[in-house]
Predict the structure of Signal recognition particle protein.
Amino acid sequence: MFESLSDRLQAVFQKLGGKGKLTEEDVREAMKQVRIALLEADVNLKVVREFVARVTEKAVGEEVTKSLTPAQQVIKIVHQELIDLLGQANVPLAEARPGPTIIMLIGLQGSGKTTTAAKLALWLRKKGKRPLLVAADIYRPAAITQLESLGRQLGIPVHSEGAQSRPPDIARNAVRRARDESITHVIIDTAGRLQIDEPLMVELEQINAAVEPVERLLVVDAMIGQEAVRVAEEFNRRVGLTGIIFTKIDGDARGGAALSVRAVTGVPIKFLGSGEKVEASTIEPFHPDRLASRILG
Ligand code: GDP
């Protein structure tokens, strides 16, 4: 993800660096190129406009045009604005006290929810926690068996009641079991649909009301681009998201969704997932500064 954006921005700054002293005109021309690069990376139009306006305002100031290293100054400003856009700092997973910490994973079908549930469980176990996976996606029998088999492979307990019980009841029973078995984290894999639909939303609201998860994390495929922003807005309106996990960042997504979603919805990105393999290393906490540095190369 971000390769092409990264290449384009680096080219803009290289050109700027070759100029030595910068005029306001040079800065404005560079910002025009930055704007095009962001739009081509599929960043939300409003986000691009505001971003470019903020950077331009700072960059045409005295500091840059009078500076001995003006291009470096511009890069520094863009770097800082990217960090702000991405949410400033890492927002860690919330911990319920007393436990268990209940995490509800939400998302469209195919977003990587079930895989991410298992990755997150592994990541938590590596931190010395005791996770329990909960199979609450009862409409896709394969999802239940997928989670059960992942749990067996990884040695992580899975609470499953097959497809007969209602998801809010499954979640409630899982939390009860977690208390009995000194589980620290309950990770609920909920049903996904191809599209956001009313029954899906109602069910999520019911699970939410039944077990009051401290984390309601939206799992989004980074490849769906701008659509991710719309999906996040809709789920946020209905269930109040506490975080976003972008999956498939190993793919060639242009990255615009990841750059837009925080600014548009206010919901922090908490994790990035990469790769089909379920390993603790294929999920990582999201750090805005690290991603900004990666984009600027
Ligand atoms: P769900 O329907 O949301 O539960 O999605 P799944 O967890 O079943 O994942 C859908 C497909 O995406 C599967 O083939 C996964 O192996 C794949 N997948 C999930 N996460 C990633 C990722 O980060 N990178 C890649 N390349 N594939 C992923």
Remarks:
- The chain has a mean pLDDT of 92.
- The pocket of guanosine-5'-diphosphate is lined by residues 107, 109-115, 143, 192, 247-248, 250-251, 273-276 (CB under 6 Å).
